[in-house]
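Dear colleague,

Thank you for sharing your sequence with our group. We've completed the structure prediction you requested, and as agreed, I am returning the results in plain text so they can be pasted directly into your records. Please verify that the sequence below matches your submission; if there's any discrepancy, let me know and we will rerun it promptly.
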Amino acid sequence: MLMLALYGVRTRWVTFAGSFVALALGVGLIAATGLALAATFSAPDKGPQRFAAAPVVVRADDQLRVRTANGVRTRPLARTAPVPPALVTELAALGRTVEDRAFPVDLAATGRDGDPRAQGSDPRTQGSASRAQGSGPRTQGVEPRTGHPWSVAAAAPYRLTSGRSPAAPGEAVVTAGPGSHLRTGDRVRATTPAGATTLTVVGTVADRGFESAVFLGDEEAARISPAVDALVVHADATAVRDVVARAGGGMDVLTGDGRRRADPGPDRDAEALVSVNALLGTAAGITLFVSVSVVASTFSFAVAQRRREFGLLRTAGATPGQIRWTVVAEAAVVGVLASATGWWLGAAGAPLLAARLVDAGLAPAWFAIGEQTWPLHIAFWTGVGVATAGALAASFRAGRTAPTEVLREAAVDSRTMPVSRWILAALVLLTGAGLLVTALVLDPGDALGRKAYITRPLLLIVGVALLAPVLVGPLVRALTWLPARLPGATGVLARENASAGMRRTAAVAAPVVITVALTASLLGTVATLAEAKATEVRTATTADLVVVPGAEGRTLPPSFVERVRAVEGAVAGVSRPTAVTVLEEGTALVTSEARAVDPARLTAVAAPPVVAGRLTDLDDDSIVVNEEWLTTTVGERVTVWLGDGREVSLRIAAVLATGTGGNGVYVTARNAGGAGADRIDVAVAEAADPGAVAAALRTAAEAEGTGIRVLTGAECAAAAAPGMSDSTRAGLWLILSMALLCTGIALANTLVTATTDRVRDLAVLRLTGASVPQVLRLVAVEAVAVVTVGAVIGAGVAAVNLAGVWGALALLGVRSGVVVPWGTTGAVIAAAAVVAAVSAVVPAAFALRTRPVELAGMRE
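Please find the predicted C-alpha cells below.
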C-alpha cells in the first residue's frame, strides 16, 4: 500500500500540488511566527544606562507593595516620592553625593541671532524623547526634553563632544545625536516648571539613546526642581543600606544591575514585547486554523473525485482499511515533503518578518530573531499532523466506497453530507453561539476583548464551512435565478453545473467563506469599537473649549492654570491624570486610570455616563468608580491606594457605566498624588462672549511659548477619538495576509483540479456546437458564481459576529452603529473572483487545445 500511495501522489500531482503549497506555506508561516514569538519571551539585558557609572544610587521605591494572603503583590506607582532632605544630609556624611533632579523642559529654538528656527526635526532625537518621557508626537517647533543638573551627567557617563559645561544661569548642555540641529552657540526658548526662559547652548554631549536631556547648572536645576529624585552616593553600599534602613522604609538602594531600575522606563523593553507576543500568537493560531481548513477541504474534495478509482480497488479485493491507509499515507507523504519545505521557508523568512515588524512600528528597533530552533521542530510536526488529521476524515469516507462505484458515470453528487459532519457542524456552531450568548448575558465587556472577537469568528466559520455542502445548493439557485433567465445558455449551464457538482462547489466556496468572514469580522469589529469609543468621547465632552499642553505627557504650568481661572466668563474645570489601585478578593491588585477633578465644575464641562449616585457628591473623602469595580454600591467605602502609594478609605459617590472601558475613575485634586494639571475644560458662561473668552485663552497660551493648544470641544473630541492606530492596522493586515495567501492557494488548487477533471464535460459542450470562447466564458461565470456564493455565506458569518459586538455595546450603554469595511471586503471578494476565474479558465484553455473527439473519449 505504501507503493500505491507513492504512485497515487506521483500520478495525481495536480490534486496534491495545492495542498503541498498551502501546507508548505502554512508551516513556513508557523515556523517564522514561532521563531519571532520565541524572540519575544525575553528582552535583551542592556544593563544600567542612566547611572551606569554610579557606585550606589538611592531613590524612592517605585512599586506599590501590598501584603495579601497569597504573598506580597506589587504594582507600579503613578508618582514616585522624592528622597527626603534629612536622608540626603545623612548620606552626605558617608562620602561624596550627587543629587539628581529630573524635570520637563520644552525647547523652542530661536537661533543664534534670535530668529525663530524650529528644532526637533531629528527623528532619532524625537524617538529618544518620546521613549524617555512617554509622550506622543510633539508640537511643531517644540521639543520635549528632560532636564538634569550637570553634576549628575558623569553618572551615565556623558562626555562633552563640543563646548564646555554650564557655569552660569541660562547656560545649558544638550544631548545631540546624528542629524541633530542643536549646536554650541544656539539660543533656545525653554519652558520648565519654574516658567519660561532663554537658554544658551554652551556644550553638547552624545545622545545615548535612552533620553533627550538638557543639563543646567546645579543651582539653577535645584531652583527649578527642589525635590531630589535620586542620589548618587560614593560610599560603601552596606553603610548606605544601614543609613537608609534607620531612616525608615520607602527607599531603594541600587547597586550593580539593580541600578537599571533608576533608568527612564526600566521595563520598556519587556513591555514593548507584550503586544508583539500577542500579535504573533494570534497570527500563528489563525495560520494553523486556515491550514487545517484548507488541507481538510482539499483532501475531502480529492476523495470525492476518486470514488470510481476506490471502487475499482474495492473490486480488485482491497479492504476498507487498506483504502483508508492509502489515503492517510498519501497525506503523510505530502505532509512530510511540505513540512520540510516549510521548515526551510520559515527559517529564511523569520528575519524578514522581524524586520517587517520593526519597520511597521509593531516591535522595538532592537528586535531580532534569536538562536532558538524548537519552533522549527514544532512547525514541522504540526504540518505533518495537520496533513494527516486533514485526510483522516476523508479516509473514512474513502473506506466506505462500494465496489459498484466503478460503474458510476454520472457526475451528480447524490449525498453531500454524512451524519458525522452534521453532528460536528452542529457542535461547533452551538459552541460558538453559546460563547457569544454567555458573554452577552454574563459579561458584555468580555465579548469586546481581543481574544473573544478573534476566536469566536473562527468557531462560527468552521461550523458554517462544515455545512457548506448543504448551504451552497439553495444559494446557487437563488443567486443564479436571474442570470439563468437571461438570453443565452451561459447562465443556465453555470447554474446547473454548480448545482450538480455540489462537492466541487462547496470545496471552492469554503476558502472564500473563510477569507470574507475573517476580513469583515476582524476589521469590522476593530472599526466598530473605535467608532464606539469616539462616540463616548464626543458624548462626554460638553465643554466649549479645551486647553491641553503642547506635547502629550506634559503638564500645564501652575501660573498658566491660574491665568485661565481668572479669565472673565470662563468656567474652568481643571483635571489631573492619576491612578488608584484596589485589592480585589483579597488577592489581586487592580490599577485603574483616574482623573482628579474639581467636583463643583465637573458637570459644567463634562457628562460622564452616571448610572448611580451624583457627581456633585464627590469630595476629598469620596470617589467615583465604574461598573467594572467589585464594589459599586453608592455610600459604601472602599480601601484604595492613590497614585503616590498612600492608602485611604473613600466613600463611593457615584458609579459610571462601563462602556468600552474608557470610563475611568474620578477623585479630587487632594487625592491626585501630586500630579500636575494636563487639561482644562472651559465652559463659556451664559452672559459671556465666546469669542472674547477664546481670544483670552489663546493670548495666555501664546504668552507661555510652549505650544499650549486651545481647542474647541468638537476639535478635542475628534483629536481624542481613539481611531484604529497604524500599528493596529498593520497587525491586522499581517494576520489577514497570512490567511488570504493560504486561502487563495486553496481556491486556485481546487479550481485547477476540478477543471482538469472536467475535460470530458467541456469536450461535450464543444461537440454540441459551443465555441472555445463560449466554453471559457461559461467556466469563468461558474467560478465567479461560486465565489459569490462563498462571499454571501462569509458575509452572513461576519454579520452574526458584528451583531454580537453591537449587542455587547448596547448592553454596556454605548449607542453606536456598526462599521462595515465595505471597501476592503469588496476588494477581497474581487481578488477571490479574479483568482477563481483565472484558475478555472487557464487549465480549461489548455485542455481545449486537444480535439473535442479525443477529449470526449478520455478515461480516468
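Summary note from our side: The chain is about 50% helix and 15% strand.

Kind regards,
the structure core
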